[in-house]
Structures are given as C-alpha cells and as structure tokens.
Design brief:
39% of the residues lie in helices and 23% in strands. It has 8 helices and 11 strands. The strands form 3 sheets. Strands 2-1-3-4-5 form a 5-stranded parallel beta sheet, sandwiched between helices.
Length: 219
C-alpha cells in the first residue's frame, strides 16, 4: 500500500516512520500544489493530510476534480462542528492531533480496505515467497528474516517483475524524498539482498542496467 503524507516540512517524518514500520510505502509532500498533483496521479492508496497545510481547501479542490482517493484529515480541533465541516468538504475521516499511533494506522488500514483491494500476506516471485507477516524471504524450505527496509525493497522489486526501477525511484518510494538518507543506502541494501538470495539458494537475481536501474529476474 502506498500512502501520501501532506504536512508542513519536518512534521511528516514521524508519521512516515510509523507507517513504514507497518510496511506501508510513503511519499511526503509539503505544498498544496504537490498534494493536488500527487493525489490525482492514480499511484496512491490513501492521503494523510494535515489541515495546517491549506486547511480544507485541498480537500475541496480534490473532490471538485473528481478525485476519489481516500483522505484522512489531521486536525488540531476537537470540536464536533469542525469535524463535520471536514467530512462535508470531502474528507473520508477526521482525526485530532495529538493522536495515538496505533489508532492512526488502524484508520489508514480501514480507509485502504474500502478501496476493495485485497493485499495477501504472501507474495510469490519465481522460486521466492515473501511473507509480509514475518518479514521472511523464502525459497522452498530455506528462509531468512529481513529488516523492514530490505523487505520493502525486495517486495517493491517483486511487484514490478520485468520492470527496471531507478535508484531514485527506490530511494523515494522506500526511504522518502525528505528522509535525509544518502542514496548509497539503496546500493548497500541491494548488495545485502543479493547475498540473501544466494544464502537461501534462489535462482532469482537482482540485475543492474546502467541508466535504467534495477530489475528482479526470476527464471
């Protein structure tokens, strides 16, 4: 699942980190125009929008443009009338700051379920099996447990079999454009995953094509 987070600069990373720990891919934006562009791109499953970024205006504009992306609005108000206005403007849910982290994740999960998309606990790619519940990468009777970033990386490559993904795409979709991480973390984790594939005896390979990016080849 891919979640777009729209907050003032610096404030969004706590939510991004929280959602990453629950195996969501996130993208952080800090301007109203970016909200409109990203939300209408068709690439996202939910928008978490802070009302300090344009109030209800982005919500109204998205709905006026017939954007059906689920919107969870974060607000500093606990007043019932403010929540009613947010829902009437087109938000699917309204959540007050400060919030309990597990409840935020549960609300995002509920909104993405409404899209009717079933996300299985396991993903197969060639002789590989990725288990989202345990973070295990399996090949027949051999397996290894991966860290969160490594699992997100192999999952992203597996979901795009036959398609090259650039280093920048991997960086943005897993670490986030505002994470502050160096792009070398992608190379480090690719090297780590290649060793893990050999360790479990998989025939799958992560191929690098200069100028195109990385591809998971599953014979």
């Amino acid at each position: 699942m891919r979640i777009s987070i729209a907050q003032q600069q610096g404030a969004e990373q706590s939510i991004a980190g929280l959602l990453h720990r629950h195996r969501y891919t996130t993208e952080c934006v800090q301007t109203t125009q970016d909200v409109l562009d990203w939300a209408q791109s068709g690439e996202w499953d939910c928008l978490v929008l802070d009302d300090r970024l344009g109030g209800l205006d982005p919500v109204r504009r998205l709905r006026a443009n017939r954007c059906s992306l689920p919107i969870l609005l974060l607000t500093g108000s606990t007043d019932a009338r403010s929540r009613v206005r947010a829902l009437d403007a087109g938000a699917d849910d309204c959540f007050s700051r400060p919030f309990y982290p597990d409840e935020l994740v549960a609300r995002v999960r509920a909104l993405t379920r409404r899209q009717g998309e079933f996300v299985p606990d396991q993903l197969a790619a060639g002789d590989l099996l990725l288990d989202r519940r345990s973070f295990r990468l399996c090949c027949r009777d051999r397996w290894v447990r991966l860290g969160n970033r490594e699992f997100q990386l192999i999952e992203l490559l597996a979901r795009h079999q036959g398609q090259f993904l650039s280093t920048e795409q991997l960086m943005d979709q897993i670490w986030g454009c505002s994470s502050g991480a160096e792009i070398s973390v992608v190379w480090t984790n690719i090297s780590y995953l290649r060793r893990r594939l050999k360790q479990i005896g998989s025939s799958a390979r992560i191929i690098l094509s200069r100028g195109r990016g990385y591809l998971l080849e599953c014979p």
